[in-house]
């Protein structure tokens, strides 16, 4: 196959080409150039490629080209291992289908309201993107019908295997109609994944893309672990505590560019937003202002920053972590231009560790963990900056008028040189005080499971040993295991009458409180409430957060169950899903 240099060469419909052009895509990536023609022809496909190589467009564009706009039932089903990836893929479909008439895509994942999903399914949609657990729930309820499905995509199949979803994937695929098109993408090809491909794919084309090392020289890369509500404070500390000439801050949405730019402006920064809603004239004015030194910070989306080349930009802040490594490489490539040094800093929440690992894996570069600048560091930097301004004024300005005033004031105010200088210094720095160390309390890393010394060296669950769905109808409790430390019994306000399962409770607590599922003990389901054994020393902020978490549309309202409180160090393992001792925690969307 000759080298493809543009999307126009791939025989895609004009509405898709128009959307792709507006998104700034120019030359198809290798996986796109190989996959799109084969999927357009209706063939099955087995693709091996790393995250961040453009896989979503590789399957979304050709499958959208074959949609029947008049059919309201689901025609395409995409299975993804996590809710974050499901949202990302759904957003990509929506962007590519911008000019397709009456197009609807529906993301379905755990933690989302069932009633909203049911209403959307009743209204009709051509594409469903979901996590295996929630897709299974809708299939069991009969609320998702796949009779007219034309294609199914397994995205990051090896990740679904690692997370323990592969049995659900098998069941879902068995419920799809014969003759549907199948596309499977996986970064690796373990035995179980290849077995699924042999069973469900027919005369499939196999594509393997070898990713070259994505090296961004002269750019130091670091990350900060924090919660979303800590980001703005963390950003202002970085902008004060880091050395940089100009900075670009990347966010996911257009509205976020405006919101954060306004908040930074209120804190005294020369800042502007850059997003896809701007006309070309406004965009050019903003770029010219940052080049001329009139702006120091630009808050931008990925699309708006494409092609941005400003030598002054020496710091890139990923305020929102990108969903794929290709976007990450594009972002940090805005710095380190023209042979200069550059810095890239990434904000990561506990839920986004997987995305961080994917970026490191795809770029083949470690991203170092960093601590935010402390109040003492910011105070010292302000003092140094003020001293530098003072020295420059003393060397370059004619100060004779002010020296005469100082002499008059010193005499009339009857104060010493030092007293007068201190009073003037206080007035000069009042808008940005120099003595601020105590005003910057420490931003604590989110509580929960600490990162292991080697993040990639995690114990993995052998899914080949996991019994199939048919072999475990009663989900009998596993053998007893030891749980170290004091545990309390907690009451949560969701029970059998709400349709809750032990797995729902485990998933909610593990995800929302970032508690390793091996530290979630016995769960007892009652009609109107349930009890769960958890460590006795849950941090207060995590406990308060859990009170507001919803499971099966019920707020947990967690409280200590006085009648069942224990201090035991050993107890039977809970009834319901959960890892064996030493196994990696499994995240199953409810």
UniProtKB/TrEMBL annotation:
<feature type="compositionally biased region" description="Basic and acidic residues">
    <location>
        <begin position="442"/>
        <end position="484"/>
    </location>
</feature>
<dbReference type="Pfam" id="PF00270">
    <property type="entry name" value="DEAD"/>
</dbReference>
<dbReference type="InterPro" id="IPR028618">
    <property type="entry name" value="DEAD_helicase_DeaD"/>
</dbReference>
<feature type="domain" description="DEAD-box RNA helicase Q">
    <location>
        <begin position="5"/>
        <end position="33"/>
    </location>
</feature>
<feature type="domain" description="Helicase ATP-binding">
    <location>
        <begin position="36"/>
        <end position="207"/>
    </location>
</feature>
<dbReference type="InterPro" id="IPR014001">
    <property type="entry name" value="Helicase_ATP-bd"/>
</dbReference>
<keyword id="KW-0347">Helicase</keyword>
<dbReference type="InterPro" id="IPR027417">
    <property type="entry name" value="P-loop_NTPase"/>
</dbReference>
<keyword id="KW-0963">Cytoplasm</keyword>
<feature type="short sequence motif" description="Q motif">
    <location>
        <begin position="5"/>
        <end position="33"/>
    </location>
</feature>
<dbReference type="Pfam" id="PF25399">
    <property type="entry name" value="DeaD_dimer"/>
</dbReference>
<dbReference type="GO" id="GO:0004386">
    <property type="term" value="F:helicase activity"/>
</dbReference>
<dbReference type="InterPro" id="IPR050547">
    <property type="entry name" value="DEAD_box_RNA_helicases"/>
</dbReference>
<dbReference type="InterPro" id="IPR005580">
    <property type="entry name" value="DbpA/CsdA_RNA-bd_dom"/>
</dbReference>
<dbReference type="InterPro" id="IPR000629">
    <property type="entry name" value="RNA-helicase_DEAD-box_CS"/>
</dbReference>
<feature type="region of interest" description="Disordered">
    <location>
        <begin position="560"/>
        <end position="590"/>
    </location>
</feature>
<keyword id="KW-0547">Nucleotide-binding</keyword>
<keyword id="KW-0694">RNA-binding</keyword>
<comment type="function">
    <text>DEAD-box RNA helicase involved in various cellular processes at low temperature, including ribosome biogenesis, mRNA degradation and translation initiation.</text>
</comment>
<protein>
    <recommendedName>
        <fullName>ATP-dependent RNA helicase DeaD</fullName>
        <ecNumber>3.6.4.13</ecNumber>
    </recommendedName>
</protein>
<dbReference type="InterPro" id="IPR001650">
    <property type="entry name" value="Helicase_C-like"/>
</dbReference>
<dbReference type="InterPro" id="IPR014014">
    <property type="entry name" value="RNA_helicase_DEAD_Q_motif"/>
</dbReference>
<dbReference type="InterPro" id="IPR012677">
    <property type="entry name" value="Nucleotide-bd_a/b_plait_sf"/>
</dbReference>
<dbReference type="InterPro" id="IPR044742">
    <property type="entry name" value="DEAD/DEAH_RhlB"/>
</dbReference>
<keyword id="KW-0346">Stress response</keyword>
<feature type="region of interest" description="Disordered">
    <location>
        <begin position="437"/>
        <end position="488"/>
    </location>
</feature>
<dbReference type="InterPro" id="IPR034415">
    <property type="entry name" value="CsdA_RRM"/>
</dbReference>
<dbReference type="InterPro" id="IPR057325">
    <property type="entry name" value="DeaD_dimer"/>
</dbReference>
<dbReference type="Pfam" id="PF03880">
    <property type="entry name" value="DbpA"/>
</dbReference>
<feature type="domain" description="Helicase C-terminal">
    <location>
        <begin position="231"/>
        <end position="378"/>
    </location>
</feature>
<keyword id="KW-0378">Hydrolase</keyword>
<comment type="similarity">
    <text>Belongs to the DEAD box helicase family. DeaD/CsdA subfamily.</text>
</comment>
<dbReference type="InterPro" id="IPR011545">
    <property type="entry name" value="DEAD/DEAH_box_helicase_dom"/>
</dbReference>
<keyword id="KW-0067">ATP-binding</keyword>
<dbReference type="Pfam" id="PF00271">
    <property type="entry name" value="Helicase_C"/>
</dbReference>
């Amino acid at each position: 196959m000759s080298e493809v240099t543009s999307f126009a060469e791939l025989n895609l419909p004009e509405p898709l080409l128009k959307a792709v052009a507006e998104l700034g895509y120019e030359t198809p990536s290798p996986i796109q150039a190989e996959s799109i023609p084969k999927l357009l022809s209706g063939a099955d496909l087995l693709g091996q490629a790393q995250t961040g190589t453009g896989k979503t467009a590789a399957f979304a564009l050709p499958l959208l080209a074959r949609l029947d706009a008049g059919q309201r039932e689901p025609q395409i089903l995409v299975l993804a291992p996590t809710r974050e990836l499901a949202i990302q893929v759904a957003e990509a479909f929506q962007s590519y289908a911008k000019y397709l008439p009456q197009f609807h895509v529906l993301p379905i994942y755990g933690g989302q309201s069932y009633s909203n999903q049911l209403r959307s399914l009743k209204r009709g949609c051509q594409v469903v993107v979901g996590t295996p657990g929630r897709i299974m729930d809708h299939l069991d309820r009969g609320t998702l019908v796949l009779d007219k499905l034309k294609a199914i995509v397994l995205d990051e199949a090896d990740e679904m295997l690692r997370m323990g979803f592969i049995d659900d994937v098998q069941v879902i695929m068995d419920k799809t109609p014969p003759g549907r098109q199948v596309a499977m993408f996986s970064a690796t090809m373990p035995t179980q994944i290849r077995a699924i491909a042999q069973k469900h794919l027919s005369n499939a084309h196999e594509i393997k893309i070898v990713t070259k090392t994505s090296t961004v020289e002269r750019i130091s890369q670091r990350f900060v672990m924090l919660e979303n509500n800590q980001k703005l404070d963390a950003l202002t500390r970085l902008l004060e505590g880091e050395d940089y000439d100009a900075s670009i801050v990347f966010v996911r949405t257009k509205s976020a560019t405006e919101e954060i730019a306004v908040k930074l402006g209120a804190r005294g920064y020369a800042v502007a937003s850059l997003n896809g809603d701007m006309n070309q004239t406004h965009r050019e004015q903003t770029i010219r202002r940052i080049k001329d030194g009139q702006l120091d910070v630009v808050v931008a989306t990925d699309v708006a920053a494409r092609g941005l080349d400003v030598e002054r930009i020496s710091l890139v802040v990923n305020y929102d972590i990108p969903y794929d490594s290709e976007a990450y490489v594009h972002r940090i490539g805005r710095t380190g231009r023209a042979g200069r040094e550059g810095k890239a800093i990434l904000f990561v929440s506990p839920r986004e560790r997987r995305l961080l690992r994917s970026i490191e894996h795809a770029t083949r570069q470690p991203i170092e963990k960093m601590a935010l600048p402390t109040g003492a560091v910011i105070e010292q930097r302000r003092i140094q900056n003020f001293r530098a301004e003072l020295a420059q004024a003393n060397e370059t300005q004619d100060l004779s008028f002010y020296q005469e005033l100082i002499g008059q004031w010193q005499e009339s105010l009857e104060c010493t040189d030092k007293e007068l200088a201190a009073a003037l210094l206080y007035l000069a720095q009042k808008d940005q005080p120099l003595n601020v160390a105590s005003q910057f309390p420490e931003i604590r890393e989110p509580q929960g499971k600490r990162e292991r010394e080697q993040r990639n060296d995690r114990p993995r669950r052998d899914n080949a040993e996991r019994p199939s769905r048919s072999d475990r109808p009663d989900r009998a409790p596993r053998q007893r295991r030891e749980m170290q430390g004091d545990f309390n019994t907690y009451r949560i306000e969701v029970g059998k009458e709400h349709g809750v399962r032990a797995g729902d409770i485990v998933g909610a607590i593990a995800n929302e409180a970032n508690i390793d599922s091996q530290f979630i003990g016995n769960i007892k389901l009652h009609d109107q409430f349930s009890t769960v054994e958890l460590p006795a020393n849950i941090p207060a902020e995590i406990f308060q957060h859990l009170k507001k978490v919803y499971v099966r549309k019920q707020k947990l309202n967690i409280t200590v169950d006085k009648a069942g409180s224990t201090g035991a160090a050993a107890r039977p393992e809970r009834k319901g899903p959960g890892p064996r001792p030493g196994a990696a925690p499994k995240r199953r969307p409810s």
